[in-house]
Amino acid sequence: MTTLAATVILAGGAVATAPTASAVGSSKCNWDYSNVQFDVLKKAALRTGPGTKYSAKGTLSKGTKFYYLCEYTKGHTSWIYGKVQSGAHKNAKGWAYGKKIGLLK
User: Fold this and answer.
1) In whole angstroms, what is the distance from residue 104 CA to residue 66 CA?
2) What is the CA radius of gyration of the chain?
3) Residue 41 per-residue DSSP state
4) How far apart are CA 52 and CA 37, in angstroms?
5) What is the spatial distance between Cα 7 and Cα 2, in angstroms, rounded to a whole number?
6) Are the C-beta atoms of residues 56 and 98 closer than 8 Å to each other?
């Protein structure tokens, strides 16, 4: 599920690493519902952009508080940009897959 930089073998046996996608902040958002605190429903990667092509900054555990800043939606897929409020990545901003963010019951 996590996409890391791909290693490419070039002619002559040289090895090069493809660059990871650049970090994208709220500029990628197309929906804004800020000022809402959600929970991580299932373990989720905190990413540098909205999609698996972006590198993971860390993993958010179930129950982690996540302050929703905005959302990127394309078709039936959504990615939430927010700020981590608890846990190992407290105060970090990043993207999490929308189906893994919500309100715990």
Assistant:
1) 12
2) 15
3) S
4) 23
5) 15
6) no
